[in-house]
Amino acid sequence: MQLAFGSVSDLAGALQRAGLAHGEYEEALGQGRDEEWAIWYAEHVEREQAAQGTMTSAHVTFASATDLADALMRAEQAHGHYQAQTGREDPDWPNWYAHYFEREQAGAEQPS
Predict the structure, then answer these.
(1) Which end of the chain, N or C, is surrounded by fewer C-beta atoms within 10 Å?
(2) Would you kindly state where each structural domain of the chain is located, as residue ranges?
């Protein structure tokens, strides 16, 4: 199923909701960090979009949940590099990731 977002803000919101739900999931498991988090997030977003129906106009798209999971892993690495460069944590990671995906899909240069 293609995952489509009308705006960067829509994508950031979906990631934020997935993050909150995943936090509850991890807490319930009580096993620490879920190494398969990207797949979990992507599948959560996919279920959410399936419940909402299709979008007619999309700004950022992913071919499938697997495509989004792969993109999440790339963004995590780039975001970690960004945080190391700035010397501080970035609590607004969903927005940072969404803009990263937008630039990536546009073929634009990523921040270094």
Answers:
(1) C
(2) 3-106
